[in-house]
Every structure is written in C-alpha cells, then in structure tokens.
Amino acid sequence: MEWRKLNNGQKMPVIGYSTCRIPPDLTERCIRDAFEAGCRLIDTGECGPGTSPAGEGTSDALRASGFHREEVFLAARLRGCCSREETEEAVDRCLKDRGLAYLDLLLLENMPGSQSEAWRALETAQYRGKVRAIGAADLDVPAFDRLMRTAHTVPAVVQAPVSVFGQQEALRRRAAECGTVMAAWGPLAAGANDFFRNPTLNGIGLRRGKTAAQIALRWLYQRGIVPFPGTTRPGHLKEDLDIFDFELNAIEMREIAALEIDETE
Predict the structure, then answer these.
(1) Quick one: which H or E segment has residue 76?
(2) Residue 200 has what DSSP assignment?
(3) CATH of the domain at 167
(4) 157 vs 162: CA distance, rounded Å
(5) Quick check: 13 and 51 in contact, CB under 8 A?
(6) pTM
(7) CB within 10 Å: which end of the chain, N or C, has fewer?
(8) Which residues contact 43 (CB under 8 A, 6 or more apart)?
(9) Quick check: is 202 in a domain?
C-alpha cells in the first residue's frame, strides 16, 4: 500500500476504508476484512456530544490482524464540539471507545459559528500525543479560511463529500495551497445518480478491465485525493483497493471531470 507524507511529517495511506455507515455489530468484522484485503487506513467513525458509541472493536480487530500499531493508520471525526472542554472530553471518549492510546488522525467537523476553542483543544491533544495529526471535515472554502486565520496548526487533512458528481475542486485547490491533503467520504456517491451504471465510468472501465467504482476511485487518487469507500462486502472492498495497476490518461480524466453536477442550477 502506498503512503504519502502529511504536512506535519506523518505518513498516511493513499486510500482508506470508512466504517461510518457500518452497523456497530459489524464494525470489528469489517475492520478485520479491511486489514485482510490490504487496507491500512481506517476511518473508525464519529464521536462527540450526543453521538452513539462508535469504533468499538477497533483494538480487537487490530490485535487479530497481527499488525503492530505503527503499521496502520486509524482516524476518527468529532462532531458537535464547540468548546474546549467538550472537545477534550470527546477526544478521551473517542480513544476509550476504540481501546486506543492514540489516533493517527482526528478530524473536527465544521459547525456554525466559531470553532477556534475546539481547534485549540485538538492542538493540545496533538501536543500531548493523543492524536498524531489533526484536520477538519465538511467545510467549504470560506470556513477553511476562517479556520486558517485562527489556527496555530495548519490542518493536515480536510475531509469532504467528494465524488465524480460533486468534485470540490475549489476546496481541493485551497487546501493544496496550505499543504493540506484532501480526503473524500462518499467517494462512490452512495450510488446516487445511477452511479454504478454511469456510461462514462463503465465505458472507461470496459477498456481498462475495471469497474465503475475502480475508475472513480482511481480518478480521485490521481487528483491527489484520499478516498474512503465503505462496504460490508469483502469482495467489493478488495475491488475498491485494486486501483494501482493502471493510470487514467488526460482525455479520460477530462471525461470524468465533465460528470460534475452543478447543484446550484
């Protein structure tokens, strides 16, 4: 599995697996399947005020895999956090639920209003070794800029809903200017807009001997975006990770870029 360096010197795999929509009773098994399939980057789900426990079974799946902790990259995201105190409590709860001493990446979900105190708490958690990299989730360019004006630590990662239908190019470019890696949740558009039957993706896939999902994930990878597909089916997961034995050419990249849907119209 290929890894890339973040702006704080840590390294993160270039494709991950998301447990965010996986039923809690399947989480451990799915993480085990992800490790077995070759994935080393796991989004273990959400935590924060009012959220249900998530990520349980993470440490058990890690032990069963036989991997050392440093061989995998485990992420999570905080939602509903605004104050320093509730963010600190959420970080500790997040680690406890997962049975971990530290997370490799913790993302702060964007909330209306100022999040400077919550971000300060994440910076403190990173300083104390509870988190090795911090980032932001679900924000647009203006919100990213607001965060940058008050942050002491530049986000290592910004996560957003990115797919061939919603490409987030402005945010990707702004993040890249700051050395921030962009990550995609929902990279297969949750099957919306008849994603898996899309003639452009399937036409390119037919020539390449790949599925529509593999073509879309490869397109994200070539844009420098780290996708987090999610599935409960081991066979689909193996397919999602099998995107490194081909390269889309410039014409194919433009054809896929033309699939974006302007939701403002």
Answers:
(1) strand 73-78
(2) H
(3) 3.20.20.100
(4) 14
(5) no
(6) 0.94
(7) C
(8) 16, 17, 18, 19, 20, 75, 76, 77, 185, 228
(9) no
Interval 106-146: pLDDT, tens = 999 986 665 788 999 999 999 999 999 999 999 999 999 99
Separation in Å, CA 239 to CA 166, 204, 205, 230, 233: 22, 16, 13, 12, 10
The values of phi and psi at residue 105, to 5°, are -150, 130
Asked if residue 72 is part of any domain, the answer here is yes
Which two three-digit tokens encode residue 44? 């273990």
Residues 6+ apart with CB under 8 A from 243: 15, 210, 214, 217, 218, 221
Alpha helices in 112-260 (DSSP H): 116-127, 141-150, 169-177, 199-208, 212-222, 234-241, 250-257
Q: Which residue(s) pair with 18 in the sheet?
A: 43
Provide the token pair at 14. Answer: 């270039």
Distances (CA, A) of 103 to 135, 183, 203, 255: 12, 17, 40, 38
In this structure, what DSSP letter does residue 173 have? Answer: H
Q: How far apart are CA 217 and CA 222, in angstroms?
A: 9
Token pair 């085990």 is found at: 32
Residues, the chain: 265
Range of the domain at 159: 3-191+224-242
Backbone phi, psi, residue 242, to 5°: -90, 70
Residues of the chain with pLDDT under 70: 111-114, 262-265
Count up the domains in the chain and report the number.
1
**Which residue(s) pair with 78 in the sheet?**
47, 108
8 A C-beta contact, residue 46 and residue 20: yes
Beta-bridge partners for 76: 106
